[in-house]
Amino acid sequence: MPRATTLEQVAARAGVSRQTVSNALNAPGKVRPDTLRRVREVIDELGYRPDTKARGLRTRSSGLIGYCVAERRADSVNTFMDRYLRALTAEVERTGRHVLLFTAAPGAEGLPVYEDLLARSAVDAFVLSDTQVGDPRHEWLAERGVPFASFGRTGSGTGDQPGPWVDVDGADGTAQAVRHLLEQGHSRIGFLGLPEGNRVGDDRAEGWRRACAEAGVEASGDLVVRCADEHRDRGEAAELLLDPGGGPTALVAANDALALGAYAALAARGLRVGTDVAVTGFDDSPTASVLVPGLTSLRQPVERVARRMVELLDEPDAAGGELLSPELVVRGSSDPVHSAGGQL
Amino acid sequence: MPRATTLEQVAARAGVSRQTVSNALNAPGKVRPDTLRRVREVIDELGYRPDTKARGLRTRSSGLIGYCVAERRADSVNTFMDRYLRALTAEVERTGRHVLLFTAAPGAEGLPVYEDLLARSAVDAFVLSDTQVGDPRHEWLAERGVPFASFGRTGSGTGDQPGPWVDVDGADGTAQAVRHLLEQGHSRIGFLGLPEGNRVGDDRAEGWRRACAEAGVEASGDLVVRCADEHRDRGEAAELLLDPGGGPTALVAANDALALGAYAALAARGLRVGTDVAVTGFDDSPTASVLVPGLTSLRQPVERVARRMVELLDEPDAAGGELLSPELVVRGSSDPVHSAGGQL
């Protein structure tokens, strides 16, 4: 069994004092960002694990960050929360703490669970996910002075949300997809959207509209179909856009399931995805990489979200939000040069 | 905020003594199975949460069960571990404890992390997942008398594995798929398999072979193609089986990605999945339900696995293993009567 790395070794390698390493772990707000980055890199490199038991005695903290695992629809392809939770676990460990999982009902009904965890000192802070519009948890925790950070926004505004948050910029994502398709020579780019009134869906529609307008290509109502997020409608939505005369040569879909509807509609007409009509999705679900051809999609930057969430927990007076851009993953559905599909 | 449920209320509702409720929580092995079930149902019904802080003082336990979140291939469609972790969290909560997440390298390289968690009394027990052939964790934990249960087997045998385990019966799964296809009138059923020598893959091939033999239908080498689990080979594997003259009318695939290869190969020949050739997959990935037509697949019984894992943690001298059957989810790919696809 290798001997454990000590705080002294971390300090020596990073060229800082023991106190600075200690601050980087326990009070990151006191350390300059570049120093903090260097110390954390050394902690990663050496695999240093702080003695959290001793820390618990000193500070009476549990050394645990609470995370609620939400119920998901069994057929949801939005599996990036699995990747996110792993990234979050690793980031929390970098600060010498661990993630404690719990279940709770959404909304106000779940608040007694948060109260119970705090009453028992089972956790020091919360990392909130599955944030909903009007989510009551943020205000409830802020009123009690409990440290937390939120993945997602409680409303459409950005200024009035209690506590710090990180979110992914959906409009930026669909705008990236449009610019990629323009580069591929497309000039009639349709949009397959979610029903209006859904914040995530509206954001993604807006990015498509804006990027088309900036490029001077059409973004009229004829090129948009919004549908319920349900299979039959998905296929029909894509069909409505596919008019062999003046229909779009590329389709930007607001998520990967809608893009799958487009695959089915194109196949039914004998059109090939990627060569006859380009298609892009959103979320880069595992489905995107196993489809034939592979589906170009936008990958949620869950590793960066996780890192910022943990940093925000330790920043005193952290407030306001940060929008991170998703990453366009190009595959055969929008660029036939790319290999036809992925792996399991 | 509703007043918390007490142990007394649970005892009264379940018609048992306070001691029995206490035993159900802390020493389930002392309680008769039917009583244990009743007490747990009442705990669920009333939302009772034991005071684990007091329990920690009494028994010097952390009240936490360690769970290692493994690195996954970014494009893995095997997302049932996400569902499993949620089920496990809920089951562990039913016993008044919580799940503590951590990361560790696979194999012996990760053992210092387990040692560190035990040395700090950060966890009382481990629930092992991502079990590999020759996994060193089981013996290491057994030697130290640390309670644990394993999802998965460390070898092909079942008798020599240290500690209790639960696994999913792959052979039973493909046999279910074959019997379903026989009922649909198919009598030439091909198998798309993983390369030989992979325990999971060999199990699934054996189930197909055995069910065909039992029904008296052919299960010859002409009907089997095994391939690397990689896209190009997947498509080619399906192609090899599809001989319009005497080729199979149904294909059982060892996983959903292989089934996707069959979808692509059939489409390339102008054949329709479900009506011209039936296809089944394995694992019931989210992909299965969003494909058009939906892919018949075998669902991992993660809720039952999670429940047994937590029960095994609390059974003194638990050893040996249990194989649970997966559940066949029938969709349009093997039964055109079913709706064509699922939802996002």
UniProtKB/TrEMBL annotation, chains A, B:
Lineage top rank: taxon: Bacteria
CDD domains attached to this UniProt entry: HTH_LacI, PBP1_AglR_RafR-like
UniProt xrefs under SUPFAM superfamilies: lambda repressor-like DNA-binding domains, Periplasmic binding protein-like I
Sorted UniProt keywords: DNA-binding, Transcription, Transcription regulation
Molecular function via GO: DNA binding
Nucleus recorded as keyword: no
Domain HTH cro/C1-type: 6-49
Pfam family, one: LacI
Domain HTH lacI-type: 5-59
Protein name, UniProt field: LacI family DNA-binding transcriptional regulator
UniProt organism field: Saccharopolyspora erythraea
